[in-house]
Structures are given as structure tokens and as C-alpha cells.
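In this section we walk through a basic example: taking a raw amino acid sequence and producing a predicted 3D structure, encoded as C-alpha cells. The instruction is simple. Fold the sequence below.
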Amino acid sequence: MSLLSRSDSLYPMIIRTLSMICLALSLSACAVITPVHGPDGEMLAWEIAVQTAIANPGQCRDELALPAAPRPGQTTLDGAAIDLLSWNIRKGSLPDWRRDLARLSLDKELVLIQEATAAMPQKSRVLPAHWAFAPGYADFSTQSGVATASHVAPLLRCRFQTTEPWLRTPKATKITRYALAGSGRTLAVANIHMVNFALGLADFRAQLEALVLALSAHDGPLIVSGDFNTWSGARSRLMHAAMARLDAKAVAFADDRRTRIFGAAVDHVFVAGLHVESATAHVVESSDHNP
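The resulting C-alpha cell sequence is shown next.
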């Protein structure tokens, strides 16, 4: 880790060079560059750190294989009534995202956000208390990824990353596990942002295989949700086949207003061991995805 002063005469050249580091490093590491601010808020320097990508879904599988029970005094989810919001929020870069997030997350037990930012809980001030964040892409000012917010503390949090084959940027997956009231069982929740820009299906398939591997050890109800980038029939078929291996079925929308690319819905929710009472997609202008 090092600090570069803004007054350094080599500053412009160094920053341009650092912007290419992610392309030059191996697939398992990437330079993350973030600004360092003084007490008065003035940007003082760039902090440069090389972070190793977490690309081991087997660790999540091993943790999910262990028996889990709520700790004394820990609250549990009511398995008879779980309200969930899933939304690619486009890093909160469009107007009115706070208003729509406040409106849509009201009384939700689980809020799954793709393209969340690490600073979103402070900026929104409406999300449930427990914030499980998995970092993905980072630029000079923003660390984004996927985040799962809940009113109940998760028993387990694990994450892994998959690299976008063209852009060499990471896509994140977050898995959380919750105790269910009165049942002795647990609910596993996977929040995923699938690779987008790829030639062929190998990288897309590999990310699905990692997800299935991670969740295969869980014994209990399951929710898998996120931005799957299923903009082709081949991608959609692979997704459904992978979810079938987990006995997870797609949530159907009677009035399906999910965002579509090339005519295909890209955001999905799958459940296993749960009964879906209703599902709604809301049309918004605060993101390029409808929640």
C-alpha cells in the first residue's frame, strides 16, 4: 500500500498508468485506488492497494455444510412471511434513487441490491440494520458490488468473485444465512451479479457452476436473486438448468415489467422450499433496472 501526493509532478502520468494496472495483473489480483480525505474533506492523496480476488466458492460450501443455530438473544426470520426486494440500483447514479429505495424497501425483511456502493447505507439512511456487502468493481471514487440488507443478523456471510472476461473487472456474489423462527431450519440467500460481456458461454457457465457448488451443501429453504444478464436464450437456458440442480424454481410475474435486453428479462428471483404469494416489478426512472 502506498500514498501518492497530489503535488507530485508525476501525478498525472502515474494515475494514467495505474488505470491500466487491472489489465496487467494476474486474474487473481487487481489494484484498487481510493481517495484519502483530510478532516476538512479535502482530497489529499490516492491510496493504492492491491487486493486479491476471493474466487473460492468452496469456502462458502464448507461453511454452509456446518450446522447453524441462532445465538442466544438473536432474532430470527418469520418463515411464514418474508418480503423481499431485489434491485440493480446502478450505483445510485440517477436522481430519486433514495426516494424509490425508501418506498420499496419499507417493511422488507430482505433487500438485495446489485451495483450497490459501500457508502449506500449512509447515503440512503433507510436500509435495514444489517448490511452484508461483497465488493466487485471499483474506480477512483466508488466501490460497488452486491449487498444484502436485513433486519435480522445473518448466521453466516460469505462471498466470492468472478472476473468479467473482457473488462477484467470482478462480479460479486454474496451468500447469507438466516435462522427461521420455530423451525430449527435456516434460509440461505444468494445475491448475484452475473458476468455480462463475454464471447460464448464458458464464463457465464463457470459462474453458475460456482454458485451451485457454493449452495449445494445447504439443507433448507433457498432464495437466489439478482441481475443474471440473461439477454440471450442460451444464457437463460443455462440459468434455469443450474437452478433446477438446486430444486429452485423461478418466481413468475403476472404483470411482468422487469427490465428486458434484446427482449429477455435479465433480473430473476428463484426459490426452493418456499411458497410465493405474490411478485411485482415496479417501473422506475431511478435505475436502468426495474426493481
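Looking at the output, two observations stand out. The longest strand covers residues 43-52. The two ends are 38 Å apart (CA to CA). In the next section we compare this with other chains.
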